[in-house]
Amino acid sequence: MKLENAVFLNAEGSLEKGGFRIVNGNITFQPGAQGEEVMDCEEYIIVPGLVNAHFHSYSPLAAGLMKEMAIQDWAGDSDQGRIQQLFFDYLDHHMPRELFYKVAQKSYIEMVKGGVTFVSDSDPGPSPWQLSEAVNDLGVRGIVDTYEEIGGYHNKMNGRVMFGTHLLEEEDLSEEELRKLQDEKEAYKAVRMTHCMENKWRHDLVYEAFGRSSVELYQERGLLDKETVLFHGVYLSEEDIGMIADQGSSVVHCPLSNLDTGAGVADVPLMLEKGVNVSLGTDFVHTNMWHLMRMVYYGLKIHQPVERFSAADVWKMATVNGAAAYGLQDRLGRIEEGCEADLVFIKKNEYTGAPFEDEGFSTALNNLMFQTREADVHHVMVAGDWVMKESRMTKVDEQEINEAFSKALKGFQEYVNERRDG
After folding, report:
1. pLDDT band for position 96 (50/70/90)?
2. Domain limits, the chain
3. Residue 186 · residue 204 · CB < 8 Å
């Protein structure tokens, strides 16, 4: 297929006019043959598929349940906490497996409609394999955290889905568990991920127990390397950030959830200055990467020279940096010769279609980030295969999945009422 008259986000992080071709699912700028299919892209701006580098598939079911509450107080002895505990009980023991599957797909569909083509899911539910099937059904990509089940999943893929494993949150760290992680690393090659130094509670726990950060503990035990992905990092010290940079590990910045839980704001400017690979994750409840990118942009302006960071920096975090976190930077996140054709077609509107452009200055990329509306995301392609056309999923029945999500919500409400009445 040849894409003509396109405006696309190039590998240098700017919008370029021109065209390219898709051959066997890959991008090429080489000349084509006569008679190939041609798509006129005059109406569109094409960007690489977005990477949601940290997410919990079930969490949209919990929308509003954790409001105005720190993580350490979840499921505690309060009215809100007791409802939260019932939610987790319902999720773990009473919600049918097939509903978990559909709830995950509901979340993924919301993301695809915003241009996400790769998601890292930290909640495998009843089965990591089943969750990978939920991703594959939609035709997109991802990685599923298998936790202690990595022995059955290392070196495996299911379609377009990878499998990783988990390090430990600070409340779970012990000498015995750290030794187990070392043994696991020797036995299995896999991406290792965890929530790391997310809030002051977790920071204080590890310092009280070990006198140093979880990052230092991982470094001492050989667990910090290019296959390590750390979520949040709000309470990372400058020394922690230096170690992460030196070892080539990645940090997933999740400001929406960090503000939801009162965790604070990660020092992303320092991470970028030190050379850390920073990607983006919506984490808990949220699925809208556009909201996230805009928040990240403004967050980079706090106590920084206004000109220091640009929209291009945020686009990089949402695309190639997310791919790099999972070792896929040579294949995904860029519109470049040889990369896989994971593409998002954004219909131009009155702002994005007519930016101000002069020699040495353009509003195009900034306008794309801030003026794109959800309805403007028209098509999504993965490896040259359409997974969404005209804002409709091509491989699954959206109505059926929406109905299943509503059924799951109703089931939780009924479960709460039964426990109260009992």
Report:
1. very high
2. 50-329+394-412
3. no
Report how far residue 414's alpha carbon sits from residue 69's, in angstroms, rounded to the nearest whole number. Answer: 24
Q: Could you tell me if 98 and 411 are in contact, meaning their C-beta atoms sit under 8 angstroms apart?
A: no
SS (H, E, C) 137-200: HHCCEEEEECHHHHHHCCCCEECCEEEEEECCCHHHCCHHHHHHHHHHHHHCCCCEEEEECCCH
The dihedrals phi and psi of 221, each to the nearest 5 degrees, come to -105, 15
Strand, helix or coil for residue 343: strand
Band (360; pLDDT cuts 50, 70, 90): confident
Strands, E assignment, 85-134: 116-121
pLDDT-derived band at 34, boundaries 50, 70, 90: confident
What letter does residue 397 receive in the DSSP assignment?
-
Which residue type, as a one-letter code, is found at position 161?
V
Residue 94 makes CB contacts below 8 A (sequence gap 6+) with 411, 415
Give the bridge partners for 116, in sequence order.
50
Contacts of 105 (CB under 8 A, 6+ apart): 134, 137, 138, 396, 401
CA 108/CA 110 separation, integer angstroms: 5
Q: What is the mean pLDDT of residues 176-188?
A: 96
Residue 252: predicted pLDDT: 98
* CA 304/CA 299 separation, integer angstroms: 9
Q: By C-alpha distance, which of 181, 189, 57 is closest to 120?
A: 57
Tell me the pTM. Answer: 0.97
Residue length, the chain?
422
pLDDT at 82: 96
Q: How many angstroms from the chain centroid is the CA of residue 93?
A: 27
- Its CATH architecture, for the domain 50-329+394-412, is Alpha-Beta Barrel (3.20)
* Residue 377: Cβ within 10 Å count: 22
Tell me which residue has tokens 């991703």. 135
Dihedral over alpha carbons 127, 82, 199, 52 (to 10 degrees): 40
Buried b (16+ CB within 10 A) or exposed e, 169-183: bbeebeeeebeebee
Q: Is 50:344 a contact under the CB 8 Å cutoff?
A: yes
